[in-house]
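Protein modeling request. Please complete all fields; requests missing the sequence field cannot be processed.
Requester role: graduate student
Desired output: 3D structure, token encoding
Chains: 1
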Amino acid sequence: MYQTNPPRPPKEYLPTMYDLPSEDPEEPGLPDEFHDLQPQLLRETFCPPDYPPDQIFVATDLNLYYDVHHPQWYKRPDWFAVLGVSRLYEQRDLRLSYVIWQEGIAPSVVVELLSPGIEKEDLGQTLREVSQPPPKWEVYERILRIPYYIVFDRYTNRLRIFQNIAGRYQELNLIESPIVLPELELSLGLWQGYYQGIERLWLRWYSVAGDWIPTPAELAEQESQQKQLAQQQIEQERQRTEQERQRAEQEHLRAEQERQRAEQLAARLRALGIDPDLP
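Delivered output (279 residues):
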């Protein structure tokens, strides 16, 4: 590839996302339903506190181009997130792919959902020919140096989290769940519950304090429950006020009846020539 002196920046001479393919027609069909739902849950609960939504890019099954020397090489993570980059390409367009030399920022976290037949590649247990693209593990660990690499096997419900320390992935000891990931200011763990009407063990994001981050649907449900609770409290207060009003009316009625009885007694005494006011 011809280069000038001084060299031009990669943004000027390398292909952009508009030039690179967004999919491989030779790859098999669409992901299964779990590969559709699980990334959605991760997307909906990924809320790093120090980044506004427009400075967080989250992608599912999107081509990630990583090597300026081999512009056609890419990986397609099941889910990844980039912090500190515009949600839109050049702040104006939805992305067709994520091109490192265009964006300038590597992902902060990658999640791979294990599928039969690709476990060894996802876990860095495969070798490659020199002329072939490097496997995922090498790309994530050594080329992009992604801080966190997460692997989840839905068949065994095994979660493995690797942290990039000094350029090498080291597996974290998952004694507690969720586990805090300091660079993201979030926690990650497994959660048993319903999502999209399906109950199973899901992977989801939590706050550093260990509280699960609600999805928009869960947040709406919480708000609905809070509204119902507030309405119940208002109704209970109205009923209490009404009961107090009725009790006050009853006390007033009893007092009036007592007053009338006293007046009637006094009138009878006067009729007998007795002054009721005398001691």
